[in-house]
């Protein structure tokens, strides 16, 4: 007996291979691997030629059967595996994609496209420790297992649902709106979140208000109304009246001190890491994902695309090795020695279930450093920053809590009341690791006693303006997507969305935000996101339709879950889905879609005919349709920016651009238009014409 194991990613394949070599199994295994998704559902025109044209009359497009095509980016991988299968050397296949719905989808869409008929066994584990891997190899699950079969169906229907909704509604909206308007199950509700905030900001009218600050020498206190607890006054006269009632001194009426013990924050899920990196370094979520991916490939951190904030117990029992990898770094050396010398302390953390809990694992566990030390590996400054965030989170969970005393004091002067707050750090605990990042501001109050009278030095009116709600940043927008349940009212659906962990997944959220930017519906402004007029128009045109609400995801996630649990048959699901798609598409066709026109960016005059050259999707095109003048935005993997195009059209050289030559080698060169043809200009005296 011989099986072919196909892993979702090469790294997992190598891990399994390593364990397999040490085992005695009654069958032999060969190994290969995907690199994520290798096939995707076909485009509409590949089903029917009349679906090529974007035409309201053919909507909704509903294929009779769903077929897959090979993804361009994965063509090589697909061909290799197909070739291996054609050798007919195998009795069965082992599906070793991630243990979850997406993993099932990745495997079975390939299996169908390849027309494979071999029986399939499922390698199922969410952990990558040697123990978990060998257990999974010994207990391969039969493909007819009910749970696996239901999961596979749910996975397939989810991707079909996204296809039907995305393509039909995008086409309906685009034809109605007169420009490309992409609609998606996750993308559109995300846009709606940003637009809602933008409208709140646009409608916001700043209003003046006043506060009264009391100077007591060693500290300051703020006026408040003891009946309403309000500390703002609407007009200046009121504020002046309050000041006039203040006497020479203030008496301490009440002192409340509360001790707060704050444990180290949870370990990083991708979302947590993205939020922290955005807060400390201003990295965008996709930047953080890219950097984390690179650290993972350098074997320095564990798998980054994870929703989990917990470690498996078995992993935690070996945590010494991971900690050791940090011991060689100067800044952690003594901390690690301290931790390792107290194994009882490590066990205490494991037992607390706060950071280590087998029940809280998803497809993967929390991100943490591996047992591999940085050593001679070269890290970019960004990689180093992310690595240290992850390292600190791990060290922190074994360190003492941060303890702080929070004191609130109430003072009285005649019939006027004031409040003062103070913080005193009792134990820095794990926060010593973060000294370089954030200065925890200590605002100690002097020692006070009730009925003590303090002289008033000064009382002044602070005049301020109310401020609009803040725009979303990478960190807060990811959070809003994760907690999308907050935006819906139905309690039951709220819970469904909470269980589904919001809209999108940790692997896709950053991508969706970038997509909204690239299609011009939202824009980055400094650290935050602004909805563009186009984005606002799209959401306002769609109106109250449920595609703008996370509710849609909630309702259909519930149904998919019912398929997995065997509560709903796939055929019933498909029937309901078709009804929904038909209704929704009809609804969209009736919409009055009025959106801002696409801004035309003119980059210069055409060298052939003199008409304006405008920026298009793939390049810079002459606006005179008869003239075929065109400069691509991407030449040999080098990006031609609008500024480059402007320079070319005025006969100048571009900046130095990084190209990938046909040989596969990379190099820098400038570009220049000579007789309407692009030429490379090298700093070295060699010259080469674009072939
Ligand atoms: Zn032209």
Automatic annotation (TrEMBL):
GO terms for molecular function: DNA binding; DNA topoisomerase type I (single strand cut, ATP-independent) activity. It holds the Pfam family Topoisom_bac. Keywords: DNA-binding, Isomerase, Topoisomerase. It catalyses: ATP-independent breakage of single-stranded DNA, followed by passage and rejoining. The keyword RNA-binding does not apply. It is an enzyme of class 5 (isomerase). InterPro entries: Topo_IA, Topo_IA_2, Topo_IA_AS, Topo_IA_cen, Topo_IA_cen_sub1, Topo_IA_cen_sub2, Topo_IA_cen_sub3, Topo_IA_core_domain. Residues 148-585 form the Topo IA-type catalytic domain. PROSITE patterns: TOPO_IA_1 (PS00396), TOPO_IA_2 (PS52039). GO terms for cellular component: cytoplasmic replication fork. Its EC number is 5.6.2.1. GO terms for biological process: DNA recombination; DNA repair; DNA topological change. Belongs to the type IA topoisomerase family. This is DNA topoisomerase. It comes from Ureibacillus chungkukjangi.
């Amino acid at each position: 007996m011989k099986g072919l194991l196909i892993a979702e990613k090469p790294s997992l394949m190598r891990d399994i291979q390593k364990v397999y070599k040490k085992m005695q199994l009654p069958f032999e295994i060969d190994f290969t691997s995907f690199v994520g998704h290798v096939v995707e559902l076909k485009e509409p025109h590949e089903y029917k030629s009349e679906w090529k044209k974007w035409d309201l009359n053919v909507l909704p497009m509903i294929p009779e059967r769903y077929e897959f095509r090979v993804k361009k980016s994965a063509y090589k991988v697909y061909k290799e595996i197909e070739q291996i299968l054609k050798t007919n050397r195998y009795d069965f296949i082992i599906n070793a994609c991630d243990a979850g719905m997406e993993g099932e989808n990745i495997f079975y869409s390939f299996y169908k496209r390849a027309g494979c008929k071999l029986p399939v066994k499922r390698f199922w584990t969410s952990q990558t420790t040697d123990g978990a891997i060998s257990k999974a190899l010994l207990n391969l699950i039969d493909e007819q297992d009910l749970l696996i079969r239901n999961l596979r169906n749910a996975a397939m229907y989810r991707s079909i649902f996204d296809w039907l909704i995305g393509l039909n509604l995008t086409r309906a909206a685009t034809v109605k709106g007169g420009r490309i308007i992409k609609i998606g199950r996750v993308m559109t509700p995300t846009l709606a979140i940003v637009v809602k905030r933008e409208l709140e900001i646009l409608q916001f009218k700043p209003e003046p208000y006043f506060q009264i600050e009391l100077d007591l020498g060693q500290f300051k206190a703020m006026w408040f109304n003891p009946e309403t607890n309000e500390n703002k006054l609407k007009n200046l006269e009121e504020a002046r009246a309050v000041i006039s009632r203040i006497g020479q001194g203030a008496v301490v009426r009440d002192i409340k001190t509360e001790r707060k013990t704050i444990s180290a924050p949870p370990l990083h899920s991708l979302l947590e890491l993205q939020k922290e990196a955005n807060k400390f370094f201003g990295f965008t979520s996709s930047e953080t994902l890219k950097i984390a991916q690179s650290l993972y490939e350098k074997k320095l951190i564990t798998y980054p695309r994870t929703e989990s904030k917990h470690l498996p117990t078995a992993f935690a029992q070996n945590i010494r090795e991971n900690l050791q990898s940090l011991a060689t770094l100067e800044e952690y050396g003594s901390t690690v020695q301290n931790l390792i010398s107290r194994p009882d302390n490590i066990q205490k953390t494991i037992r607390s279930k706060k950071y280590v809990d087998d029940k809280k694992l998803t497809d993967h566990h929390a991100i943490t450093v591996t047992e591999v030390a940085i050593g001679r590996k070269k890290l970019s400054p960004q990689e180093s920053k992310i690595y240290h965030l992850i390292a600190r989170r791990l060290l922190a969970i074994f360190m003492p809590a941060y303890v702080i005393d929070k004191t609130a004091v109430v003072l009285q002067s005649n019939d006027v009341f004031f409040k003062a707050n103070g913080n005193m750090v009792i134990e820095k605990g794990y926060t010593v690791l973060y000294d370089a990042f954030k200065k925890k501001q200590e605002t100690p109050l002097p020692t006070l006693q009730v009925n003590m009278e303090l002289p008033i030095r000064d009382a002044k009116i602070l005049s301020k303006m109310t401020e609009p709600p803040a725009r979303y940043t990478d960190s807060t927008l990811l959070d809003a997507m994760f907690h999308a349940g907050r935006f819906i009212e139905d309690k039951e659906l709220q819970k469904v969305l909470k269980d589904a962990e919001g809209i999108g997944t940790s692997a896709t959220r950053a991508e969706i935000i970038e997509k909204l930017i690239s299609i011009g519906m939202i824009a980055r402004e400094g650290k935050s996101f602004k909805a563009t007029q186009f984005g606002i128009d799209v959401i306002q045109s769609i109106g109250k339709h449920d595609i703008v609400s996370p509710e849609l995801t909630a309702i259909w996630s519930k149904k998919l879950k019912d398929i997995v649990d065997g509560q709903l048959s796939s055929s019933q699901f498909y029937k309901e889905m078709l009804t929904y798609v038909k209704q929704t598409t009809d609804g969209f066709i009736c919409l009055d879609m009025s959106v801002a026109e696409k801004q035309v960016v003119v980059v210069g005059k055409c060298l052939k005919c003199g008409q304006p050259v405008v920026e298009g999707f793939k390049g810079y095109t002459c606006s005179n349709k008869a003239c075929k003048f065109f400069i691509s935005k991407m030449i040999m993997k080098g990006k031609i920016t609008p500024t480059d195009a402007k320079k070319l059209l005025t006969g100048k050289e571009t900046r130095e651009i990084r190209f990938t030559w046909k040989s596969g080698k990379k190099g820098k060169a400038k570009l220049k238009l000579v007789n309407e043809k692009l030429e490379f200009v090298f700093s070295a005296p060699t010259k080469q014409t674009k072939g």
